[in-house]
């Protein structure tokens, strides 16, 4: 089935944040859709489809062409030693249909190698905690792929999202670190089946979040969302989702590369009976700040460090990080009795 869809992005205002859109004349999508049977996965039920898109500017100039497949999946695996493009890695993942304009309204150094962007987005933009965005940069063929590190609550309150991007030579990340400025304009599309978005009627779970390096981004979003849900229903009095416990295990080379650590500690202090965290550093010889010492462990995450946070009946584990770490942790969790259905992971590299 072949049809054309014209998306007109009109000039306007970003609602709560007051940043005007640039003047967009429109994007023309040529869409071919082939439907497949519905497939079920945790935590979503999605239909499988294959779509081919040709993105044209209003002048008819070809901007980008790619193929997107959308079966329900919870992993992004590399099938070869070649460094795969974001669109290739995520070809089997769910994507929203809409591509929305966004404007950079904040830039800060999260670490020596990571920049944190705040982006004012279109009022219709939505995402679930843990999802990522296709990141379209004007004049650049390569499409970036970055997990949202902020919570859906921040989007609802302020009309913005945040991305934390590590420096690499990959064109989109390199642009963010070397050319992106306040008020830069980009476009984004949300994707991914790796998310935490419980309904009020869903059974309570105890979250175990395991992150390696910049794999913290989607898990930080999930942690913040869990904290927001607890604030909305502090006594679990039946007005919303019944929150279980949340424990974060986060590994990095050194404390400087532990992103969001102060915010994570603050959440644990706000809800000491519900939230806890362990930080692991693998390559630091210098002394550790006194504030971090109660949460810090030297060396890699061990089976013993996971055992006390795994209950086969209640634990739901989200993992994100380098493939070797993910594979090792998955095997450990399985040996501790956690079923495969309760282990959700993404491999970005």
Automatic annotation (TrEMBL):
Pfam families on file:
NAD_binding_1
Gene Ontology cellular component annotations, sorted alphabetically: mitochondrion
The membrane spanning regions, by residue number, are: none
Q: Which residues form the FAD-binding FR-type domain?
A: 97-198
Record's keyword annotation contains Heme: no
Q: Which residues form a coiled coil?
A: none
* Keywords assigned by UniProt, alphabetized: NAD, Oxidoreductase, Signal
Q: Which range is the signal sequence, renumbered to this chain?
A: 1-15
Question: From the Swiss-Prot or TrEMBL record, what is one GO molecular function term?
Answer: oxidoreductase activity
Superkingdom, according to UniProt?
A: Eukaryota
Which PANTHER family does the record match to this protein?
OXIDOREDUCTASE NAD-BINDING DOMAIN-CONTAINING PROTEIN 1
Protein name, as recorded: Oxidoreductase NAD-binding domain-containing protein 1
What species was this sequence derived from?
Oncorhynchus tshawytscha
């Amino acid at each position: 089935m072949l049809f054309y869809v014209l998306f007109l992005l009109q000039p306007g205002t970003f609602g709560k944040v007051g940043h005007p859109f640039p003047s967009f004349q429109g994007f023309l999508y040529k869409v071919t859709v082939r439907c497949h049977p519905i497939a079920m996965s945790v935590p979503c039920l999605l239909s499988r489809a294959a779509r081919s898109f040709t993105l044209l500017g209003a002048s008819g100039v070809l901007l980008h062409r790619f193929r997107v497949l959308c079966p329900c999946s919870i992993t992004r695996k590399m099938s070869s030693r070649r460094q795969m493009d974001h669109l290739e890695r995520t070809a089997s993942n769910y994507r929203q249909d809409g591509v929305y304009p966004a404007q950079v309204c904040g830039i800060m150094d999260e670490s020596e190698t990571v920049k944190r962007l705040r982006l004012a987005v279109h009022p219709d933009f939505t995402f679930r905690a843990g999802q990522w965005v296709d990141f379209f940069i004007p004049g650049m063929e390569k499409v970036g792929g970055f997990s949202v590190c902020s919570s859906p609550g921040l989007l609802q309150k302020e009309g913005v999202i945040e991305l934390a991007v590590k420096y690499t030579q990959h064109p989109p990340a390199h642009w963010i670190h070397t050319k992106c400025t306040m008020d830069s304009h980009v476009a984004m599309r949300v994707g991914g089946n790796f998310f935490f978005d419980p309904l009020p009627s869903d059974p309570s779970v105890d979250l175990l979040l395991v992150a390696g390096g910049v794999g913290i981004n989607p898990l930080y979003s999930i942690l913040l969302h869990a904290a927001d849900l607890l604030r909305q229903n502090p006594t679990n009095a039946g007005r919303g989702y019944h929150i279980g416990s949340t424990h974060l295990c986060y590994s990095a080379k050194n404390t400087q590369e532990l992103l969001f650590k102060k915010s994570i500690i603050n959440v644990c202090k706000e809800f000491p009976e519900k939230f806890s965290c362990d930080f692991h550093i693998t390559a630091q010889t210098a002394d550790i700040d006194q504030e971090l010492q109660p949460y810090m462990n030297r060396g890699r995450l061990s089976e013993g460090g996971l055992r006390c946070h795994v209950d086969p009946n209640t634990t739901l584990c989200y993992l994100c990080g380098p493939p070797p770490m993910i594979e090792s942790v998955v095997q450990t969790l399985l040996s501790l009795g956690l079923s495969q259905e309760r282990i959700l992971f993404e491999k970005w590299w």
